[in-house]
Amino acid sequence: MKYSQSFFKLFLIFYIMLTASCNKTINNNIFLKMWDGPYDGIPHFDKMNIDEIKPAVEKALELSLKEINEIANQKDTANFENTIGKMERSGEVLNRVYPFYGIYSNNLSSPKFQKIQTELAPKISDYSNKIYQNNKLFERIKKVFTDSKNKPLDSIDQRLIDLTYRRFIMNGAELDSIKKLKYADINNELSTLYTKFSNNILSDEENYTTFLSENELSGLSESFINTIKNESIRLGKNDKFAISNTRSSMDPFLKFSENRNLRKQVWENYYSRADNNDEYDNKSIIEKILKLRKERVNILGYDYYPEWRLQDRMAKSPENALKLLLDIWPSSIKTVEKEVEEMQKIADKDNVTIKPWDYRFYAEKVRNEKYDYDSEEVKSYLQLENLKDAMFFVAKEIFNLEFKEIEHGKVPVFHQDVSVWEVYDIDENKLIGLWYLDPFSRPGKRSGAWATTYRSYGSFNEKEIILASNNSNFLKPAKGEAALVSWDDAETFFHEFGHALQYYCSKVKYSSLNGGVRDYIEFHSQLLERWLYTDEILFKYLTHFETGESIPKSLVEKIKKASTFNQGFATTEYLASAIVDMKIHLTNPENIDISEFEKTTLDNLDMPKELVMRHRTPHFAHVFSGEGYATAYYGYIWSEVLTADVAERFSNSKDGLYNKELSKKLVKTIFETQNTIDAMDAFTRFMGREPKIDALMKDRGFIK
Predict the structure, then answer these.
(1) Residue 554: how many CA atoms within 13 Å on its side-chain side?
(2) pTM for the whole structure
(3) Which residues pair with 419 in a beta bridge?
(4) Which of 140, 175, 200 is the endpoint of a domain?
(5) Which of 203, 452, 478, 687 has the fewest Cβ atoms nearer than 10 Å?
């Protein structure tokens, strides 16, 4: 068929107009724009438009791959600068887009975004596949790596090429074309499953709120009642009191509610998340994930996922990780037996046999009886605002960092609850970062607490102002009232701030060398929890929310005496999750029944019937919403061994945790170095030896 010349002219005009329109859309996309303004440029969180996130991610992936292909296809012989250096500088647009994508995923999720996320997940996975399976790129990396063995680079450059080469090998760079295709298909399928898993949990957290009447509040404190009243009003039920299906709401309710039937209901809602045999059930998803993970590592020559996963961790092997968990387990469950025995004596008076929904309630009664310790009394001194100031005090005293709050509205934020601070290095007398805080729970925000960066440090890329964020799920108080948190929540607040301090202390050349392996990076954050227990914090920053009076010495003594209380419960619920995580990945996943596996594994461990795993398998987001903590949940207790060891050294020194000499050495050898040296080497540089488990066992009251 022939077309007239005028038709082609019209078609050309239309095509040009369409292309121009698309380019205009891309160019005006807020997520793709350079971060301008002060602080080396800041993200325009206030101009976020969900309709623009998908095209932005797609364009950023496209541009990043173009850069990678240009590096791979260079004619010049591969060397560190033209290959590894260029890789380190690539992906600038993608690095700008991902923080927005992360905020929509974690802080501002919605059904609309979840649909977008489902569509993008395989594309993001495919992007990663195309990098790791780029033969020309890998050959250049391999040459730089091989050359470095004959002529070593300086230590930092050598570390980067060693890790880069290992990462490519671990992700199938040496597979043949058929296996690479299969490997990529598995990754893409997994990415979709991870997204579905995470969104299912969020759905159950939002769909199982327990609404209380005024006559169902017995045992609850006035401050907690006011908070759950405010939550209910926010949800449109002005005459009710809302217990949301999150840990920050569930935990205090189970501790203090005198209504056993309601305790059971709230407990079941929380621990059955994504395990209700409905459209949001995750068990079949887990089965698929396990099969795909095993199939993928089989392609690489490994029998089971943990063998592949742990080779570059401190533990090195699943056997070493399991040994640590199982070494602690007997002491942990023995302590639970003692705790239950004490609780049952009180429960007998109520004609109650302790069930999991009773554990927190009667544990609180024992703590009150044994130590004259009232959690609600302690909570009245734990004001969120003051805890922030306490963390800033530690940052200044130990890390030489100063935080100065920025007036609300001066820096763009993605939600009205978010506040921002400038972070200064006191020694160098210069601004080094911004700290964003998003403290309160809300619909669409994933549960738990976490830290992240929007821009990390790396002198190689010249942008030196670090943009970091802490995120929590505290219950938002009514207007004009103080935000009060539990002691556990205060510890978590300090914990996540420890991650932020790690970001700000970084002195690395390459941003890729920030962070480190999973069983090491929690050490930094767990260590910061220790400062919460110091007199300098307790007596200065713990003031009563009504009277403003400092916490009494008598109450501080009770806090310290009770510090090992309920460690059987805390340690056992954690260990159970960590052991199940490891064992389920060391089991043939064919025809696996997730519920039965969990039950059988715990039965074989003699799991106390009075409690459950901290994260039951169907909502174990650490493990099944991605791969960050898969077969790596043990890392928390592994890191705690390091933490207890270091804390004991501080405690035995002059001035304890405020020893200036040790603090300086800690920052220099641990916090500044990040992943520029091996984790064990960093630890031994500080301690002069490898870690020992003794201090941890003492901390938890398992040995004297």
Answers:
(1) 5
(2) 0.91
(3) 437
(4) 200
(5) 478
